[in-house]
């Protein structure tokens, strides 16, 4: 019985990951999405991600796999914190697009990336964005920075500096 519950959890996880992929790669080509204004397009995508995140959170809670993460006690108020954080992230993303408009380089990169096919699509979208970039970010931010700043760990400076550089890496790329 436990094995069947675990299989269902892994299938649900795979389905959620596939759905997340479809939100960003398939929905952008749909006719009604192309007809939307830029703001409505992003609002629609954010709503889809919010719904998906809520479903993922509920699936995680119902599966009770969170109990394996230690002494964590789940409370439904955490879902409220998640929704508030998501809303604040949405507001921040909209503010930064007005403060820092997309550069010509950024627009060209997006245009080229959307037209990729075959092996170039695999290398750029799958290999680089799913494996190489996250691993290198973790090695730099957590591995090198946090380790080198471990002497000031009790003041949380290692975490703050690492988070600031991680955030700057993502803001400055656009």
TrEMBL record:
Coiled coil: none annotated. The keyword Phosphoprotein does not apply. Residues 122-172 form the CAAX prenyl protease 2/Lysostaphin resistance protein A-like domain. One of its GO terms (molecular function) is endopeptidase activity. GO terms for biological process: CAAX-box protein maturation; proteolysis. The keyword rRNA-binding does not apply. The chain crosses the membrane at residues 7-28, 40-61, 81-100, 112-135, 155-172. Keywords: Hydrolase, Membrane, Metalloprotease, Protease, Transmembrane, Transmembrane helix. Signal peptide: none annotated. Belongs to the UPF0177 family. This is CPBP family intramembrane metalloprotease. It comes from Streptococcus pneumoniae.
